Amino acid sequence: MSLPVTTTLTRTPKTKPPLDEQLGFGKFFTDHLYAADYSADGGWKNARIQPYGPLALDPAAGVFHYGQAMFEGSKAFHHVDGGTVLFRPHMHAKRLNASAPRLCMPTFPEEDFVAACKALVKADLAWVPTKEATALYLRPTLIATEGFLGVRPANDYLFFIIASPVASYYGKGLKPVRIWVETEHVRAPRGGLGAAKAGANYAASLAAAMRAKKDGYDQVLWLDGRDHELVEEVGTMNLFVVLGNSLVTPPLSDSILAGVTRDSVLTLAKDKGLTIEERPISMTELLAANKAGTLKEVLGTGTAAVISPVGELTTRTQKLVINGGQPGPVGLDLYETITGIQRGTKPDKFGWLERV
Ligand SMILES: *Cc1c(COP(=O)(O)O)cnc(C)c1O
Questions:
Q1: pLDDT digit string, tens, across residues 218-262
Q2: pLDDT-based confidence at residue 172 (cuts at 50, 70, 90)
Q3: What is the C-alpha separation between 155 and 166, in angstroms, rounded?
Q4: 291 φ, ψ to 5°?
Q5: What is the 3-state secondary structure (H, E, C) of 258-271?
Q6: Which pLDDT score, from 0 to 100, does residue 168 have?
Q7: Burial 177-214 (b: 16+ CB within 10 A, else e)
Q8: Dist. CA 282–CA 220, nearest whole Å
Q9: In 293-349, where does DSSP find H-type helix?
Q10: With a 6 A CB cut-off, is 323 part of the ligand 1 pocket?
């Protein structure tokens, strides 16, 4: 049985920014949000579309003290046929629900999750940018709202979705990033929250990212938390490496997030006949491959940037320039294919688009 949704539309719509390539990322928010309340005894109820605005929360709410907070990030696209589509929304719902128990949080029914995304996009349809390399970014979020300071999982939760019109991370084309190989801080240890899209993982990552930025890098390469030897993720993206003729990515574990883009890349690469390996990759192997000339491309994958080529990888002792600092053919092709499917200029062979 699906959750009934009530709709209260705003009487004071905002002035929209130009919905073009200058949108940046996450700077503007639409006129509405979706929200639903959970209580341990009553389950999910009170699903609603309401005007976008501040939330009133008890200062003792669990989210503020013990960090019970998770989120998703997905996109709605203007399709070339004039419609609007979501990209793999069921996968985002499944991921939220797969990791909610790790934070002792309730799951949100998958069908209601997808219906909620559609309802919000419909309410704010005029905010979906239509230009190439733009999208309406959706941020489903789950937080503990019960006001109680005893240390235990909260009984009350809020699930909400906000929406932000965004432009491509890099404007037109792909701009390779410069990456610092981080050997001090750890994003997620074995046994930690790394497989959940928990706000806490982001809190853990900010200091190293800021330090890297100050030193002139765009982001950091995260290594495993025990030996600082296996490569895990790059910034807030999954990592792929083109080694010789293989596309290699670390296997999913409890310190690696199961990216929807990662899954899409693996599916497309298989379909294109590329050799794929899901296996651990060490820094030792990367440095040796670089010396031998077999390290062809390093890629980050995620919803925001889709594919982010790494142009430079810098460790404490050496700087690796990847593919002459230019985007490589594998990354470019995957980027064109995924963004083509999203816009409708390439066939949606795998049924990834869901109409709003
Ligand atoms: C969100 C995220 C990704 C990318 O996931 P997508 O579903 O592809 O957007 C990768 N790594 C981390 C740590 C993330 O938080």
A1: 999 999 999 999 999 999 999 999 999 999 999 999 999 999 999
A2: low
A3: 35
A4: -60, -40
A5: CCHHHHHHHHHHHH
A6: 83
A7: bbbbbbeebbbbeeebbbbbbbbbbeebbeebbeebee
A8: 16
A9: 329-343
A10: no
The amino acid sitting at 310 is V
pLDDT digits (tens, 9 = 90+) for 35-64: 999 999 999 999 999 999 999 999 999 999
Query: Would you say residue 309 has pLDDT above 70?
Result: yes
Distance separating alpha carbons of residues 197 and 233, to the nearest angstrom? 13
How much of the chain exceeds pLDDT 70, in percent?
A: 99
Cα of 95 from ligand 1 centre, angstroms = 10
The answer to whether residues 133 and 339 touch, using CB atoms and an 8 Å cutoff, is yes
**Ligand 1 binding pocket mutation candidate from 187, 197, 205, 249 (most atoms within 8 A of CB):** 197
pTM: 0.97
Residue 73: both structure tokens together: 């990030």
- The protein residue whose alpha carbon is closest to atom 3 in ligand 1 is 237
What is residue 193's three-state secondary structure?
Answer: coil
Tokens 């990354």 -> residue? 331
- Please, are residues 123 and 7 in contact by the beta-carbon 8 Å criterion? yes
Domains defined for the chain, CATH in brackets: 5-167 (3.30.470.10), 177-343 (3.20.10.10)
